[in-house]
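Issue 218. Parser rejects a valid record. Input:
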Amino acid sequence: SYNVRYRKLNTTTWTSRTGILETYLRVTDLEPATSYEWSVQAVGASTSGQWATHIIITTPVSCTASGTFT
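Output the parser choked on:
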């Protein structure tokens, strides 16, 4: 499975989703025209990997459609 965390750029509080079994994650609580920092972690049966290098994704000005993070 996977863990995913994200936060608004230059903030300290992460939002985490854990135990993800798919290779995609639908996120609906993002704000328009906002940059978010994202990271993913693989989880095995007995251990978890390190968090991947963060990437920055900026949402479009108009967020009328759902997006999928893959």
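Fixed in the parser; the record now loads. The beta strands are 2-8, 15-20, 25-27, 35-42, 55-58, 67-69.
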